[in-house]
């Protein structure tokens, strides 16, 4: 039999079209009432909207203005919704919290966090519940955070010494604050002092790990294309990085286990590694912790970058608003002038500084889209269908600037929190959610805030701050970087003037 090739072509294309049409209809019938959203292109959906240089939370906030507080997007193969109002966030993070309490599996944490066995990316379930219990009863209790006070005070004093060495000339404050936060975290986790070898290698690897999760990764939105992971080179790059990290962590843990063996007194937990090794050894956990689990928990260093971002923005906002800078500085100096140095014992008196930090986190949440959630089952929210495995991006940045809840929302006014006593825990409102909300809210709020407070208090106490020559307060670049981290686009360059010398 001889077939006409044009007929074959005709039949093939017709059947493909019919197949695509049926598939489209079936999907649309199944989810006829998805939330509104922009027109989706074949294959890429709405990915192109996020491919420009504007930060994703800005693009998504503009979409919300057009389509409403609940927007549906297609990101490659992924169905996603974006939440941009306090009321809608409440549906996801409170009323249906348990449905949206999981995270999508993303390549970077999957490799770097030993198969998503850390807290931030572990899927919702018994293992994650056990980790949260360890957080609230062991790792981030008020007592534990207090036990790290000497580390914070020492490291921030070192920061001030290094700033003082460059007094009178422009310094990169962002970089210095970033290094300090990394040192605090590494010492709290491993008890290791900075200053060379293994620790500085660990610091730079942790910094690199943050880069992997600070942008949307194309391989994550085409999960069925396993080969894309290989051909894009992404998997190899992350694996190489992970192997370096793993080697250092193994050596630190091995060294600690040996030291513990020789430590006959067993004089308590000095750092987070001690706590986790104790829990691993004492048989008290329902699901035993493996050494890989411990390594992944210690790598949940999200907080390092968040604290740096917050301090960076707080300093930038104050330089732009000299009234606020002076008021905060007067408070810190009035509180500590009797002592001639800053320590945490009088922090309860720094009422205005606390307002400055709150206002900074409203305008510049370090996780503008929180961490992505994933629906565990099909759900209906505000009459719209949310299919299983939909990603949920909550735009905390847009919610903190919503004119419906915030008067003059773009202005930096710490005093607004005097009239609006609102806490970090999203207990009764979702108008302010820099730490997220519901079951997966940040478990280390106290730790994060303690880091920011000490840095700000010491930097304000010891130094006056000027912008480099030629830059007026009104000209300070307040743009954000293009990724998911809410960081400043440009590092903060400032001139410190010593006003209260460091005595030791
Ligand atoms: C200013 C400082 C910080 C900010 C703004 C911040 C913010 C956040 C946000 C927005 C989330 C996601 C919450 C959600 O999905 O609803 C989160 C989760 C998390 N944060 Fe923080 N964080 C900070 C500091 C820290 C620190 C210092 C640590 C640890 C050392 C930490 C550890 C975690 C962990 C482990 C999670 C995952 C929780 C889970 O999925 O169950 N954070 N954080």
Automatic annotation (TrEMBL):
One of its GO terms (molecular function) is metal ion binding. One of its GO terms (biological process) is terpenoid biosynthetic process. Its cofactor is heme. Belongs to the cytochrome P450 family. PROSITE patterns: CYTOCHROME_P450 (PS00086). It holds the Pfam family p450. InterPro entries: Cyt_P450 (IPR001128), Cyt_P450_CS (IPR017972), Cyt_P450_E_grp-I (IPR002401), Cyt_P450_sf (IPR036396). One of its GO terms (cellular component) is membrane. The chain crosses the membrane at residues 6-24. Gene3D superfamilies: Cytochrome P450. Its main location: membrane. Heme binds at residue 442. This is Salviol synthase-like. It is a single-pass membrane protein. It is found in: Membrane. Keywords: Heme, Iron, Membrane, Metal-binding, Monooxygenase, Oxidoreductase, Transmembrane, Transmembrane helix.
